[in-house]
Each structure stands twice: as C-alpha cells, then as structure tokens.
Design brief:
With 98 residues, the protein is of the alpha/beta class. Helix content is 42%, strand content 16%.
Length: 98
C-alpha cells in the first residue's frame, strides 16, 4: 500500500539554467540532480526572502512539505559544492503557474 498521493508543487517559472559545472575539476565529475520544486523553494526562501509559511502558500503545499523540499535542495547544492559535482536541474512533481 502506498502513502497519500503527492500534491504537485506550484513553480512560477522554469529555471533558465539547467546545469552548473565546477571549473578546474579533472575528468568528468558526477552530478546531483536538483528538482524544479527544490529550485523554486530556494528561490522563494533564500533569494526573495519569503518566510516558510508564505513560500509554502505560494507553492500550494504545507509548510512542513516546503521545509522538507527546501532542506533537500540545500543539501544537494552543498554536497555538489563540497564534492565538486555538477548540478543538473530536472524533473520533479510540479506545475508551472504564473
């Protein structure tokens, strides 16, 4: 038996950049995949400065879900920076609303 069905997260715009690559890394580094909704959560919380309640409302999800999405996105970015990995932006469970 599966849990509750996932609610699609609302993303205002598709990110312009789909990949970030470290410079100076020898060979082909592995990559971390950042989902569209994780980029949106980081944009709302860290770039625009919304609090979690406001950002969650903007994305059409609960504050607890927003917090989890934000934490996962930040962890992926931190891991990529520390380990010199490529960050690819793709996938997720979202719908675009402007």
């Amino acid at each position: 038996m599966r849990g509750r069905p996932r609610i699609q997260r609302i993303v205002q715009n598709e990110p312009r950049t789909k990949q970030f690559s470290p410079r100076g890394a020898i060979g082909r580094p592995s990559y971390n995949e950042l989902k569209f909704e994780e980029v949106e959560a980081i944009r709302l919380a860290d770039f625009t400065g919304l609090n979690q309640a406001e950002a969650a409302k903007s994305m059409g999800i609960s504050q607890q879900t927003f917090s989890r999405v934000l934490r996962n996105g930040r962890k992926l970015i931190a891991e990529a920076i520390v380990l010199g990995r490529i960050i690819k932006v793709a996938g997720g469970d979202f719908k675009i609303e402007k």
